[in-house]
Amino acid sequence: VQLVESGGGLVQPGGSLRLSCLASGFTFSSSTMSWFRHIPGKEHELVATIGSAGISTTYADSMEGRFTISRDNAKNTVYLEMNGLKPEDTGVYFCTAYAGMRRYWGQGTQVTVSS
Question: What percent of the chain lies above the pLDDT cut of 70?
Answer without folding.
Answer: 100
